[in-house]
Design brief:
four-stranded mixed beta sheet; 47% helix; 14% strand; binds fe (iii) ion; 2 domains; 495 residues; Butyryl-CoA Dehydrogenase, subunit A, domain 3; 19 helices; alpha+beta; binds iron/sulfur cluster; Butyryl-CoA Dehydrogenase, subunit A, domain 2
Length: 495
């Protein structure tokens, strides 16, 4: 069961529909924990199911909108789900971002499949570069892996963020070597890795994981400079699914209090204990000098992928406009102006992400990567603007989003009629519709999907300072100064 071929045997039939995908998550015997209990079938757990539903939309959209959600891949020689496609033109990246925005609109949450997509693009180019220099065969191995993944249409998760321990120390200096994922043993069949990856988006809803270093490495960090792919049900993997604000509202009964009962995101801590990776699935082992370009390329892809949040912004702007109508204030000039402000912020994010796609560059492997500066600017916008959009949505919605009675009270014989009487807004608006919209705003700004819309916007694909460092590196300040001096007539000696 350890050869690459045997590991792919379960994926002989491609996953096509959203239903196929949901069924593919059952019977895997994964070691998953949530709220202090082992969860044998995460997809059937009421708190985790909405996150699988969101991932399932990446399959649904491929059949409904193939013009941007599928692409012909030269690797497998077939049309593939765009989440498994290496971008080979600026148009590919434009289509990818259109798809991500549309999925954000459909789900109102993180649909979790972009980390693996961006890991694929990154591994394509970095393995090519390593082979060119070191004479290794990582690129062909990676292509063989990806060909199988494309044919089977599996979800590949990306596992990048190590626990990191003492941030002032390199991986090899940590008192516990497991604080960064590393190779603990090698034999003639493959390698064994131990450690952990934190905050792993969609981990339990994936089929395979690609693990990668999280930061630059030094020569002494060779054993930590490792990239490979494992099945999510590989022996030695344990998952602890993260707690999200208000996640258990879904089990309180009814569908209103959850705000978005159908969709949610998911993050998990993944622990690796002596996990075997056959050579065929090892894409870097010890080439520490390439960790920097790997991280930079991944973050360049992924920071533009945060265009997803503009889809969530569309939903939240729509919810705020609906709340205004329910209150009878949609014609007030300050309400209209706030909706314009929200839209301006949302489209500013979109424009920087799309510009980064249109200005993408080809690298040696043939893959295209978003423009680095514009991608960092895009993600930096994402660390700020959703917070302001959320503030304006709460402003328009009013304090009822945090004081509103529960659905159970609404259904209670005695107080239900009182709630219906006193929460009535504009005539003709159903009280339940008003409450549902307010719950959605709560969900996206302080509830379960604020995890994705706000805090993940802040820290996902790197916290704000990470983008500022990249912006500082690329801002060509000397060139800007020279241009200013030239126009001002300042002599070179006088600088
Ligand atoms: Fe994709 Fe956005 Fe979720 Fe990241 S936060 S995985 S880019 S949907
Ligand atoms: Fe993320």
């Amino acid at each position: 069961m350890n050869s690459a071929e045997a590991l792919w045997a379960d994926f002989a039939t491609p996953i096509v529909t959203a239903d196929d995908y949901m069924n593919s998550l059952r019977g895997r015997g994964m070691n998953v924990f949530f709220m202090g209990e082992r969860v044998p079938e995460p997809v059937d757990h009421p708190v985790m199911r909405p996150s699988a539903n969101a991932m399932a939309e990446t399959y649904r959209i491929a059949s409904e909108r193939p013009e941007f959600a599928t692409a012909r891949s030269d690797i497998a020689g077939i049309a593939v789900n765009r989440f498994l496609h290496v971008p080979t033109s600026p148009d590919d990246l434009v289509a990818k971002h259109e798809m991500q925005r549309e999925l954000g609109r459909r789900t109102g949450t993180c649909f979790q499949r972009c980390v693996g997509l961006d890991a694929i693009g990154t591994c394509h180019s970095v393995t090519f570069d390593i082979d060119g220099k070191a004479g290794t065969s990582y690129h062909q191995r990676f292509l063989a892996f990806l060909r199988r993944a494309q044919a089977a249409n599996v979800v590949i998760g990306g596992a990048m963020t190590d626990p990191k321990g003492d941030r002032s120390k390199a991986p090899h200096q940590q008192s516990d070597p497991d604080l960064f994922l590393h190779v603990v043993r090698r034999d003639d069949k493959g390698i064994y890795v131990s450690g952990a990856k934190m905050h792993q988006t969609g981990a339990v809803n994936s089929h395979w994981l690609i693990f990668m270093p999280t930061m630059r490495m030094t020569e002494a960090d060779r054993d930590w400079s490792v990239v490979g792919a494992v099945r999510v049900d590989a022996p030695g993997l344990t998952y602890v699914v993260g707690r999200q604000t208000n996640d258990t509202r879904i089990v309180d009964g009814g569908t209103m209090d959850a705000g978005n009962a159908q969709f949610a995101g998911q993050e998990a801590l993944i622990v690796f204990e002596n996990v075997f990776v056959p050579h065929e699935h090892v894409f870097m082992d010890g080439e520490w000098a390439y960790a920097t370009s790997l991280v930079e390329r991944f973050t360049t892809y992924h920071r533009s992928s945060y265009v997803c949040k503009t889809g969530l912004g569309d939903v939240l702007i729509g919810a705020a406009a609906s709340a205004a109508e329910h209150n009878g204030v949609e014609a007030a000039s300050h309400i209209k102006d706030k909706l314009v402000e929200m839209t301006h912020l949302n489209e500013t994010i979109y424009s920087s992400c799309m510009a980064a796609a249109h200005q993408s560059k080809k690298v040696a492997s043939g893959a295209y990567i978003n423009d680095e500066m514009l991608s960092n600017v895009a993600k930096h916008n994402v660390t700020r603007f959703p917070f302001e959009i959320a503030r304006l949505a709460q402003d328009i919605a009013g304090g009822l989003i945090v004081t509103m009675p529960s659905e159970k009270d609404l259904q209670h014989n005695e107080v239900g009629p009182l709630i219906r009487k006193f929460l009535q807004g504009r005539d003709g608006v159903e009280v339940t519709d008003r409450m549902r919209i307010l719950r959605l705003i709560e969900n996206m700004t302080i509830g379960r999907n604020a995890v994705g819309y706000l805090t993940e916007s802040l820290h996902g694909a790197g916290s704000p300072q990470a983008q500022r460092i990249q912006i500082a590196r690329g801002m060509k300040i000397e060139d800007k100064k020279a241009r200013a001096r030239h126009l001002a007539g300042v002599s070179e000696r006088a600088k």
